[in-house]
Amino acid sequence: MVALTGASGSVYGLRLVEQLCLIGIDVLFVSSCTGTEVCLEETGLDLAGDLHKATERLCAHLEIRGGVTMAHPDDLFCTAASGSSAPEAMIIAPCSMGTVARIACGISGNLIERSADVMLKEHRPLLLMPRETPLSEIHLENMLKLSRSGGRIIPAMPAFYNKPGSIIDMVDFMVGKILDQLNIEHTLYTRWGSKNL
Question: What is the pTM of this model?
């Protein structure tokens, strides 16, 4: 499951969905209301409205033929909201500090928060990509609480040792880091120590 929330950096989640679909992994995708607004502002992709049409626009934007199913952020009857049907892994990229706080406090007001709660209680991989700076003590405490509860915090901090030549190179580094955490092989970035550096 991949979720977008209202932090800047929609391209991270979108690129992750693309890569997962390209290697044949079916993706349940959900965007919060604010995440949808930010995505439109940053990428021009409109995820609002009818889910079928939004899915078609998403696939066209990512140039993929399928493999992704969209869910409404208020659909608490979605299978991902139940421990008996929990996804294998959940990634929230980007993850707003509001979402971090609500998950850390066990507040399940929408599908993203409830699914994250399910992942923690079922001890399944929950990866969060916070995209905020500077970080307040409250932000740090919430992320520490999630880390201690089993969540994995992967801040959007691209490396520069691989000499990125474009924004997509920097995005791919971070998406690659997420795939690393899921033990999914990829060639999105050149690893430290590689002869290709």
Answer: 0.95
